[in-house]
Each structure stands twice: as C-alpha cells, then as structure tokens.
Amino acid sequence: MSKAAPKVGTVYLVGAGPGDPDLLTLRAARLLMNAKVVVHDGLVDPAILAMAPRTARMISVAKSRSRHTMKQQDINALLVREALEGNDVIRLKGGDPFVFGRGGEEAEDCLAAGVTVQVVPGISAAMGAAASAMIPLTHRDSASIVSFVAGQCKGLTDQNWAGLAGKGRTLVIYMGVATAEAIAEKLMADGLAPDMPVAVVENAARPEMRVLRGSLAGLGPLVAENKVRSPALIVIGEVTGRGDMMELKQVLEMAR
Questions:
Q1: Inside any domain, residue 237
Q2: For 1-21, what is each residue's pLDDT tens digit?
Q3: Range with the lowest mean pLDDT among 58-67, 193-202, 216-225, 236-245?
Q4: Is residue 1 part of a domain?
C-alpha cells in the first residue's frame, strides 16, 4: 500500500490593523485565537499577540531600520518550512499584508513551494492613522486623489514626486520618520509649496497616539524636536487642516 502524502499546512497572511485589537477583522481574531504557530512583526501590538493561545508557538521576525531579526528571504523560507511540516501558520502583519507589508513576496514563495496561502485583509496603517486623527484622506472640497509612498525606498532623490501632493491631493508616507527632512526637501524641490500643511500620526489607534501638525518646510524639525518614533505616518495635504478643525470642534462639544 502506498503511503498517504504528508499534510501540508496553510499560510494565512493576516493584517493586524493599525494597533487597536478592536480593529481586527472577525476572521483575523478567530484565526489568532485558534493559532498554533504565529510568525509576527515587531510592531504588532502586544495586546493582539496576547489573543493567541498560551500553547501557540510565537516567532518574532521584527525588523527595524538598523537591525533585522531575520532577512525577508529567510522569513519566506520559514513560512514554507513550517507549512511543509504540516503546520498552519498565522503570518501576522501590522496594517494590511499587501500594503507595504511584503505579503506579496511571501505569498509568491509559498505558492511556488506548493503551499496554500489565504490573505486576511486588515485596516491599513494609512487608513487607521488618518481616521484616528480625524483626517479625511479624501474630502469633496479638499482632495479627490490619495497616494501612498514608502519613505525609506532606494533612490529617493532620483524619483519624481511632482504631482503626488498639492491642490486636491493627499500624500501618505509610510516609514518616513528617519528621512523626514529629506522627504520635505525632495517634495519642495519637485514643486510643492513650503507652507503645505502636514500631520505626523504616531502610534495610531493606541492610547499613546500623538498627532503633530505643521508645514512641509518644518517637517524635519517637527519630527526631530518631538522625538517621533515608529510606528508613525506622515500625511501631507490640505485635509490635515480639516482634521485639526474637527478635533477642536469635538473638544469644544465635550466641554459643554
């Protein structure tokens, strides 16, 4: 009699959202609460990790700008290896796995190895940060176009960012804290007005969230003087001023 083929596990690419456990999707929460193997990023909130069973094997693959616990190709190989050993794997990522989460690379390697992949979307960091700060990324009177860019990309100064921000447009920059000064200089060199409003949202959707506002010309000092740390996003455009007004109105209403 021939032996049965060994069971191959499934890799679930799960978006953990911007931080607050209440913002997980129901499917993400269910998968996490029944997990046996969880491979997670460093910025996933500890309260979300605590939803996994105590018996679950938790594997951190935290990344920072200066230090990586594990290279991306090694993370991909880890997911494949665990699945080929018969384990269902929850690959837990901040925000959405397919928005600057490198979920596409992980999915491609898993599928190439014959491993089934399921993607569980999450609230993206941009949407979570903007909503938490009451910044409408689009507004009928202010913006009908939204662009997402990575602030730590290679060849930053060689790229043409003209038209990404300005009248009627909103620009959201991921991973831009360390390069905020260069980003501002680049955008102004490409034609954006120095007085364009900006907002920096740190620790979105968490109790320690901060929202800092200023102008494009002052973005570098705003980040440096306030010692902004990741996770944080930069929002550039007229809509950031609307968020300021809505926050003020809310405070006044609560004070009545």
A1: yes
A2: 556 667 999 999 999 999 899
A3: 58-67
A4: no
Catalytic (active-site) positions: 41, 63
Domain final position from 85, 108, 123: 123
The mean per-residue pLDDT over the stretch 123-132 comes to 94
> What's the pLDDT at 252?
44
Same-domain pairing of 142 and 88: no
Query: Which CATH number is 69's domain given?
Result: 3.40.1010.10
- The single-letter code of the amino acid at 81 is R
**211-230 per-residue burial string, b: 16 or more CB within 10 A, e: under 16:** bbbbebbebbebbeeeebeb
Within a domain: 31: yes
Average pLDDT over residues 97-126: 96
User: In terms of residue numbers, what domain contains 41?
Assistant: 10-123
Residues 119 and 142 in one domain: no
pLDDT of 219 higher than 50: yes
Q: Which two tokens stand for residue 155?
A: 């060849």
Which among 233, 213, 216, 239 has a CA at the least distance from the CA of 138?
A: 239
Task: Take residue 209 and report the two structure tokens written for it.
Answer: 């969230």
Distance CA 182, CA 67 (A): 21
Residues 6+ apart with CB under 8 A from 102: 72
106 plus 137 within the same structural domain = no
Using CA atoms, how far apart are residues 87 and 15, in angstroms rounded to an integer?
19
